[in-house]
Amino acid sequence: MWVLLGIVVIVAGFLLRFHPLLVILASAIVTGIAAGLDPLTILAAFGKAFNEARYVSIIWIVLPVVGLLEAYGLQERARGLIARMRGATVGQFLAGYMLLRQGLAAVGLTSVAGHAQTVRPLVAPIAEAAAEAQAGDLDDDRREEVKAWAAATDNIGLFFGEDIFLAIGSILLIKGLLEQYGISLEPLHLSVWAIPTAVAAFLIHGFRLWRLDRRLKRGAAATEEAA
Question: Per the UniProt record, which residue ranges are transmembrane (predicted)?
Answer without folding.
Answer: 58-75, 156-178, 190-210
